[in-house]
Amino acid sequence: xxxxxxxxxxxxxxxxxxxxxxxxxxxxxxxxxxxxxxxxxxxxxxxxxxxxxxxxxxxxxxxxxxxxxxxxxxxxxxxxxxxxxxxxxxxxxxxxxxxxxxxxxxxxxxxxxxxxxxxxxxxxxxxxxxxxxxxxxxxxxxxxxxxxxxxxxxxxxxxxxxxxxxxxxxxxxxxxxxxxxxxxxxxxxxxxxxxxxxxxxxxxxxxxxxxxxxxxxxxxxxxxxxxxxxxxxxxxxxxxxxxxxxxxxxxxxxxxxxxxxxxxxxxxxxxxxxxxxxxxxxxxxxxxxxxxxxxxxxxxxxxxxxxxxxxxxxxxxxxxxxxxxxxxxxxxxxxxxxxxxxxxxxxxxxxxxxxxxxxxxxxxxxxxxxxxxxxxxxxxxxxxxxxxxxxxxxxxxxxxxxxxxxxxxx
Length: 410
Ligand code: AMP
Ligand code: MG
Hints:
The protein is of the alpha/beta class. About 20% of the residues lie in helices and about 30% in strands. The protein has seven helices and 26 strands. The strands form seven sheets. A six-stranded mixed β-sheet has the order 7-4-6-5-9-8. It has a six-stranded mixed β-sheet with strand order 16-13-17-21-20-18, sandwiched between helices. β8 and β9 (about 125-130) form a beta hairpin. α4 runs parallel beside α7. The longest helix has 19 residues, at about 305-320. The two termini are about 35 Å apart. Residues about 1-5 have low confidence and may be disordered. The site of adenosine monophosphate has 20 residues, from α4.
């Protein structure tokens, strides 16, 4: 269903996402990168397997390898050798013979079955097999990956698991897109840098360290430009500097309609505003646009709003800009176990907690505080509850889409 914006002047999130993606041209420059540095980088070419994995039929168990037809003839076989991982049995099995084999050991010519040692009785070299089924415990060559198979597609962001996959193929380096450089600064006369003594008329700059960390997690290089006072000329100078050195500039604060909120004004003069008021909560005042050479996000000042808009709006944009086309996480339907307060007109990204109840049903309850000033409320939550724009308050028992907070490791 296409959302209608019934709040004047606010753009529905779906429309904003379309405008944003249309405004972005993914970077094309690529270079070669060793596996040791490739995690979180975006692959610039399809990765095709140069070999099959495993390269040879091998044993999935510690036990004995033999020909099944021999076992049918007599369940006591004679052990004539060994095949350990990395040390093969070079001979060929004859009738009535078996070999000792360890997990990963190559299956010798003439064998077609492995029995695990727990199902055998050994008397010197005489091995009696209690029970076996044909083809047991053999990992066939190419079972994991066939030669010539597409392993990772262009545009995929490399995870630690992918590093293992590439290593299993003997691929030492991959072509990756250039890392993004993202400049970050905070605006506000009230902000103190972390490390300076606390003052009761100031607040610590929370957004910048948080955004720098979030950007690092995304695999971007960060240009930290510090705190800029609420001064139009200083903000403009910082934006001009950032525009030269970065692919994207992210600021926080100064995008609402307060007297000291210059960011959007400067964007209008120096670049192009694509949107600056979204029908979302939290994060209504959010400016997105283009500077002469870079993209621009003016995130709201409240730390919760900064975090949520970074997660849901800036992150997909930065991934796309970086050449990444991984499918976004899919929301999961959960049953509301508490009421969720909401007014129609904006899409809500409420902090929430999901769990599985005694009946095995995925449930979600809202966080007590949805204030955009209460950053600590994230710590008792494990997901967003996404409440659609036209939706009103949610009653217990209604289905709500959730998006678990996640740290991608695979
Ligand atoms: P603004 O959008 O500049 O009006 O800021 C909205 C609210 O967020 C104000 O209460 C600011 O003090 C607060 N705020 C702005 N920037 C930051 C920041 N970097 N860290 C923590 N709070 C901030
Ligand atoms: Mg401000």
